[in-house]
Amino acid sequence: ISNSTWITVGAGSSGKGSGAVSYSVTANAATATRSGSLAIAGLPFAVTQAAAVPAFSLNPPTVDVAAGAATGSIAVSAASPNASWTAVSNASWIAVTSGASYTGSKSVAYSVAANTSNAARAGAIAIAGLTFTVNQAAAAPAFTLSAAPSSLALTAGSSATTSIGVAGTGGFQGSVTLAVSGLPSGVTATL
Predict the structure, then answer these.
(1) What are the residues whose beta carbons fall under 8 Å from the beta carbon of 38, sequence distance 6 or more?
(2) Sign of the dihedral through C-alpha 116, 119, 120, 126
């Protein structure tokens, strides 16, 4: 008697004395090993079936990148040289740059745009029904300075005004202190 739906008893399911019992198992489509049993003359007979070989695998399956722009590649291994697949990004900041479709095993190249946000982000590339995950760090808070006009030419005894602009990047919201140093003798600056 089979105690598992995937094990079927064939010839020898009943009888007297010594004999042989045949059984068959259905294919294991799962990626995990499975166990079942038969009861023969009241005694258990264990059956263990290996996991299915995945049709595809990715190496690596995930990557962590810094906030700056990055590039990389993923090795796609196919169990069959005739297995076709595609690679499609689900995020506008991740681009598949080569190997977007193929038959068999191949590498997929990708690029990641710089993250200028103060929040980390995650995206993915779907490859052959599997997911390659990209985790990108947040941008470090910073700021940029701009001057208008960017340079001044003055004659002795004259004065001029320039505007200094401060723009936060990566979520910067702190204060900025400006100072002037290295002026020639007799020149003053007021902030």
Answers:
(1) 1, 2, 3, 7, 9, 21, 23, 44, 45, 47
(2) negative
**Distance between CA 169 and CA 17 in Å, rounded?**
85
Neighbours of 96 (CB within 10 A): 18
Characterise 182 by phi-psi region: left (phi > 0), alpha (psi -120 to 50), beta (else).
left
136 vs 66: CA distance, rounded Å: 6
Give the residue carrying structure tokens 């995650």. Answer: 122
**Each residue's pLDDT tens digit, 66-93:** 999 999 999 999 988 888 999 999 999 9
Q: What is the pLDDT of residues 133-175, one digit of tens each?
A: 999 999 887 888 888 888 888 777 888 888 888 888 767 777 8
Answer positive or negative: Cα dihedral of 122, 123, 128, 129.
Answer: positive
Q: How far is CA 186 from the centre of its chain?
A: 59
